[in-house]
Structure formats: C-alpha cells, structure tokens
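Put briefly, the fold is written as integer tokens. The lines below illustrate.
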Amino acid sequence: MNPLTDTDRPGFSRRRALLATATLVSASAPLACRRPSARIAMPADAGAAAPWGALDVVRVSTMREDERGGIAVVVLHGWGAPGDDLVPIAQALKRPGVRFFVPAGPLPEIGGGRAWWHLDPHTRPPHAATDQVAPGFQPTPAVVAARAAVQALIATVVDRYAPQTVALLGFSQGAMLSIDVALAGAPAVARVVAMSGVLLADSVPALIAPHATRPRFWLSHGRQDPVVPFASGTRGKELLEAHGFAVTWRPFDGGHEIPPPLLIEVDRFLFPQP
C-alpha cells in the first residue's frame, strides 16, 4: 500500500492514511515513498534573511496560490534525513484550508542527508538541564542560523498567505528546532508538535523571557530511545510546564520513532474541532 496515492481513492479513511504513513517513520526505516509536490528552490547563498529562509522547501496543499488565510504548518526533519523525509507526513495530514511547508536543513551530511546542525561533539548544542542560563553561555552558531532560517521561512509564509494560525511539527533534531523557534516567538507560533526531541540550552533565554503569546506543545518520546535520551525529553517537558506552557505529553514504549497511533493524536492537536 502506498499511503501517498491510496488516500485519493474513494472510501479510503483518514485514519488508515495516518496509520500507514506513521509506520514509515523511524530512525531505522527512512521515509522512501514520495509524490511530486510543489517545490520552492532557493539559492544556497541567499542568506537567512532571504525569502523562505534561503531553504529548499516542498509545499503540500490543496489551496490555490492566491488564497489567503487558513493554517500553515512548517515540518522540520531530523538529523541526516533527506530534506523531503517528512513529506509523507504532510501528505497524510493534508486537508482543505491547510498549507504544509517542508524545508530541507541547510547543512549537507554524509550519505546525502541534511541537518540543521552537525553532531560534532565540540560544537553540537547541549540539552537544557535547568532553566538557568549558564555563566558565560555563548549561543551555538548553527542553532542561531537554523532558527533565523526557519523564522525567515515563517515570515515569508505570513507575508504571502496571511494564515490565521502557524504551527510547527518536528522530529528529533527538527523537534528541538521547532521548540526553539516557537519560544523565540517572532513570528508567533500557536502550536508545536515535537517528537523525540529535547529543550536545548540555546532555548533557555527565550523560555524564561516574557511572552506576549504562548504556544501550546504536544510532545512524544520513546522510553527506549537510543538516540535522544528519554530523560532529556522528560526534562524539557518539565521545564516548559514550569514556565506556564500548556504541554500534552505522550511517552510510549519504543525507540526513536513515531508510533502509528500518535500521528492520529497529532492530527487532532493541530486541527482541533470546534
């Protein structure tokens, strides 16, 4: 079954589409099913202030280019994945009135994957253990650059389409960046889905700063995650809650993955029914 084509068949249920797509998402089983989608190719040297954050972006939507309003969801992949790794997730969640934007991380990795920052042990960003900014703390340059790129992408989306709501969805490294961008708050993000991620030390200054608006968070993490420690994910959840953010927490028995039932919950969280 191909979840990207079978969803177009009459009578194919949305629940089956979400379950089928979620089974493809794990650290050991990269997403391989693809359907051609609208792609925005930006020059690599355009700079983070350029439209779309100078990122290569795949768009998934049934909305016309001249339509405004609706919901915009930016989907951020994990370290070392293909830039369009989570396009099947966007395809499965697709519905009228929603635009998905799936950017590729700006940094190349061995094997053809992409990243938001490299995993060099001397330069990778530390996980947040407390809500205190460490003495002498210096922001991680790659996190600063990735944040600026995603903020510029969101700014372009807001300027071009004027969505009523902006949301972020990320897995692993993309989850960490989703939390970071949402806390930065410019542009404002209403909802965040962060799967198998953590709160970064780079995000703590924004965590403890005053917030004009407060995004809602939906977090999931596998108790046996061998890639991003479950304890780090739990600590991030606790710090967000301690600073007054609404958090839905979904731990599960499993590893670095997105279990099928969780994607159904993601759908409900991103698109709540009145």
